[in-house]
Amino acid sequence: MIRPRTFQSLGADSPVFFQGWHPFSTDALAAAFAGAGGVGVIRMPAFPDTEALVRRLAELRKGGQLGLDFRGVLGDFSTRVETAAQDLAAFVMHGSELLPERLEALRAWGLPRVVEVRDEAEALLAEAQGASALLAAEGEGLSERLRRMIRSTNLPCFAPAGAEGEGRSLLSEGAAGLQLKTPAMLREGAADFLASFRKRLAEVLGEPALEDLVDHPAPELPRLRIRNLDIPYPIIQGGMGIGVSWDRLAGNVAHCGCVGIVSAIGTGYRYPEDANSVQGRPLKAENLNSTPALKRILRSALDIADGRGAVGVNILCAINEYERVVRDSVEAGAQLIISGAGLPLALPEYVGDADVALVPIVSSARALKLICKTWQRKFNRLPDAVVLEGPESGGHQGFSLEQCADPAYSLDALLASVIEERDQWGDFPVIAAGGVWDRADIDRLMALGAGGVQMATRFIGTFECDAHQNFKGVILKADKDTIALHGSPVGMPARGVKTALHRRIAEGQAPRIRCISNCVSPCEHGKGAERVGYCIADSLGDAWGGDTESGLFFTGSNGWKLNELVHVRDLIGEITQDFGLTRLQV
């Protein structure tokens, strides 16, 4: 049953307003929404610190309704978390995809539950399981889905809204209230149905603070233009393999107006029926980087993107059968190819006349010069963009251990020389990558001349990331000291989380090297793996499968900052400071 105090508006006929965006590093907006008679929502970290949670709730809950968003919790629902929630929260929010034991734990707490659902079937199931209210998930056909939920259940149904017109329409359809997704809805002169709530919010926050929040957004980011692609936001999601960025992540990033990148490595793990295997490992490069699997993944990503943003593929120069994977990507419809881990000097030859943007990854102006000189001389073509990857990135580095620690090789320090070299060849964008975390980083790098940024690690902390939940758990549990550079079979440093695999190697209990997949040429069919104590294909494959004992878990230097799971749409809204992604509403 819904508690009498829960989801009640201040006026008899006025709707309830949920907080739907998180602009601060604190929960100040949640407290303000609650104090103004709305509903504040606190996003729970993946692994809650009970003491910190109790302190947060005690400080924030001074009247009003505060809910706990459990959608991204990976850790145990401890008894102490239960006690804190029961004492200090008005409700809990979770998604429809909840493990049975977790659902039972939340039901046992006795708190009202708001369940995010995507369709009528999920709504009916949530009602049967004792939900107190429903929140329609964002996405296509929202109005129709909301109508079906209202008709088929007896629960109050709330809906997300990013614009006044949309909100008015959803309320007319019967929504009990709105999840406000953008501050623009609360500007001076807000719609009549929002006016009284805005007034109360101004009383809680203070009019200057509210105006600063809703009327003075961050400076608008430029669009990103690469070849014939016009990308609404200048953000590329970096490729992460094995299986961290495949169709679900890349497709959703593109659907939100950015560039989603599918990793071409290890696709045979995704669809084992398309690959010959030995002892659970794809046999040789032709099966590790499976043609039918890559095409299925890329085409699925393009379907999810539905014409928004762009979908590309990241292909390591160092993999065996590189040319074949490039041709597979072109045939599958990749809109751009990003290629590093070596110099992609022959990439234009393999792409031919296909209308595909080519984007090499470099670590120096010298590398860019060699690529441009070679491409122009041999193929009469130049890069459509270039990614400059600094030494704070996850995975393999284009620097020695000493260079990774030298400020002269930092991303900021290298950017000027690469831009200067680019200017000798044209005006294609230079994309800054490696350690890019937030809007402040983007603004700094673009002020230095970057045309956009590539971010990878931030996207591990999303629901849509293709990685196993155990993979996400390893990254979300990591602290600053456990993320380090270590040796790799390819002969260059690689950055990831120190795990049981590294401990076993240090103790002389390294896993047996079999080189079934023959993944990268610098390893020389297992010789590199013997030197460092692990096979990179096997270890990344184990991480894809969620094996925390033998898996290899790559992340950037800022991976320790991840502590929660969010939706891609919300993350991009936070990064761009365009909450509601208004550029996509044209």
From TrEMBL:
Keyword tags: Flavoprotein, FMN, Oxidoreductase
Q: Does the keyword Zinc-finger apply?
A: no
Q: Which GO terms describe its molecular function?
A: nitronate monooxygenase activity
Q: Name one Pfam family in it.
A: NMO
Q: Which InterPro entries match?
A: Aldolase_TIM, NMO
User: What protein does this entry describe?
Assistant: Nitronate monooxygenase
